[in-house]
Amino acid sequence: MNLFDLSGKVAIVTGSSKGIGRSIAAQIARHGAKVVISSRKAAPCEEVAAEITRQGGTAIAVPANISEKAHMENLVAETRRQLGPVDIVVCNAASNPHYGPMMSLPDDMFDKIMRNNILSSLWLVKLALPDMQAKKDGAVILISSIAGIKGSETLGAYGVSKAADMALVRNLAIELGCDNIRVNAIAPGLIKTDFAKPLWDSKENSDYFLGSQSIKRLAEPDDIGGIAVMLAAPAGRFVTGQVIVADGGATIT
Length: 253
What we know:
This protein is α/β, with parallel strands linked by helices and about 250 residues long. The protein has helices at about 20-30, 40-55, 70-80, 105-135, 155-175, 195-200, 205-210, 220-230; strands at about 10-15, 35-40, 60, 90, 140-145, 180-190, 245.
């Protein structure tokens, strides 16, 4: 058995037009899965799907706004129509519209963060669940963050949502384990993506974060993509309800 073989599997990866999501989609496709590329805008999704196809993989683009339940319903319906039943769900898309203390956080922004970062993941899992239950097999991966482990003066609400990710995977792992469905989270540290650009784009900021890590480099999206492959593949078949921290040692120093 090839422990990292995903041949014949169908995977949905949200927020996969760039950054961590794009890496996860590309790596999963490279190991044999048929992948759905999804984010809000059609053109970037189609570009990534075309690139995966050029490299010999199978990918389609299904744009969706994670804050809209109807979009999530269409995402799963189009996946089934074009590729077949869903085997793997990667909830990567998230938002952080507020950078600052929680005491200045408007209610509507808090609602948006929790809807996009938590509720949308629950929607997607519920929608894909019948396919996994029918096969008595499946993998769900939530992309969390070490912001859910540490406190912050500027990323408080985002951190609350990422801590909720961790609780969600534990609860879903208990609920869905009887159907051999594994549910796990990956908690990255600072990754060199556009989403995290305000945190690494200046020498002062990058030096600060590197000073807190035992591995003295900024992480790239592919540092996360390989972990997702393991959790989705037979290599991770006995791992569930866990949070895998990938932060270069930032939370142990």
